[in-house]
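To illustrate this point, we now present one chain and its tokenised fold:
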Amino acid sequence: MPGNEGAARRAAEGPASRVAMALLRLSQAVKRIGIADARPAGLTPVQAQTLFFVRRTKSFLTTIGNLAAHLGTSHPTAVEVVNGLVARGLVVKRPDPRDRRVTLLALTPAGEEACARLDHWLDSLEEHLSGLDAEALDALERGLGAVIRSLQRAGLLVVGAPCRGCVHFREDAAAGAAEPHYCALIRRHVSEAEAAKDCPDHTPAA
């Protein structure tokens, strides 16, 4: 029977194939949830992601190139998204004070307000996850973390994270200074506020 054949095929595919299909279905649900949650703010999911990127990323790393990598899209598409948000008064472009050839993105007050309205974005997904017990959530977090790291190593995913825990981070390299911490990768000191924001080049320390 067709039903039995389908069950037999899935069993023969092995757990990796079944989990891959489950992740595909999950991504479809997350997309629908993202659309529904962003709609009250008058935004699309990619626009919401862009606002969060600008808000959470170090101010000197909010380039369109980094945004494109974060969104997993092309540079022209990222430019189009940014231009739409600029036209709506939610984002501004400004030159990097250290290199005026580089354009950085920043939120306007209206952009900050839009982010505040999105603070509960994807909360409904958390509600579905809350049905799992602590042991199941821990196992899921570890498993998904391993998949994410594998995708990062393959260059298929960019995940930003704060400075602490990064192999390049030197905490209190200049203790007492306005920018006490140091990043060995980009060779610049950073303030505590910037250290707490995401960096797309974060490399977890072993």
